[in-house]
Design a protein that fits this description.
Blueprint (H helix, E strand, L loop, with lengths): L4 E6 L6 H10 L4 E3 H9 L6 H7 L4 E2 L2 E2 L1 H8 L3 H25 L5 E5 L14 E6 L2 H9 L6 H10 L3 H7 L2 E4 L4 H16 L3
Parallel strand pairs: 1-5, 1-6, 2-5, 6-7
Antiparallel strand pairs: 3-4
Helix pairs in contact: 2-5
Length: 198
């Protein structure tokens, strides 16, 4: 049985990846959102709450994981971050596998994975599309987010491979530094190319 073509979608913070993922979804392409899966697993009654509470006591409650409290425990602590990832990553992989089975009859599916290159996940997809914009546009978008500080932005960028390197390693680059219509057109063209290969 032929399996769907899996397109990995990634991009640095503020590049418009979520907007582009939504464009794929609007065109009928199933999108697996890794961040949304994490939120679900860590939300109220999420199946990772017990393991996270055991590893980081006092970081969960009625509403699920207290993201601020957990963030304070792992931010800047590589060992703590590794312990958290050892809990979260296998569970997300399970969700991704279930998503793949659910959409096995599709021609194309998208895996929206923020740290795709950073975590070596590019080997699990058939091609990679990087969402990218110029650095001024990126900074403007990032600093429009509530609670963002220059320190936080710098720390996030430090965990991410530079945009230029992502672009160089990508099979496709989707530019979001232009009008939203131009970006939507680029997404539509890419879906056409991947679902109706010549």
């Amino acid at each position: 049985m032929s399996h769907p073509f899996i397109l990995g979608l990634t991009g640095s913070i503020g590049m418009g990846k979520s907007t582009v993922a939504q464009m794929f979804a609007e065109l009928g392409v199933p999108v697996f959102d890794a961040d949304a899966a994490v939120h679900r697993l860590q939300g109220p009654q999420g199946r990772l709450l017990g393991a996270i509470e055991a590893a980081f006591p006092g970081t969960t409650g009625q509403g699920g994981v207290d993201r601020a409290a957990l963030g304070a425990r792992v931010f800047g602590d590589a060992e703590a971050m590794a312990r958290l990832e050892a809990i979260v990553h296998p569970a997300v992989a399970d969700e991704r596998e279930a998503f793949l089975i659910e959409h096995a009859g599709q021609k194309l599916i998208v895996f929206d994975i923020p740290l795709l290159f950073e975590k070596g996940t590019q080997d699990r997809v058939d091609a990679v599309a990087v969402v990218s914009a110029d650095s001024d546009t990126q900074r403007r978008r990032v600093f429009a987010r509530p609670g963002m500080t220059p320190e936080k932005f710098a720390a996030i960028l430090e965990r991410q491979i530079p945009d230029a390197e992502k672009r160089a390693r990508a099979d496709y680059v989707i530019d979001t530094g232009c009008s939203i219509e131009q970006t939507r057109e680029a997404v539509r063209d890419l879906v056409g190319k991947l679902t109706n290969p010549r």
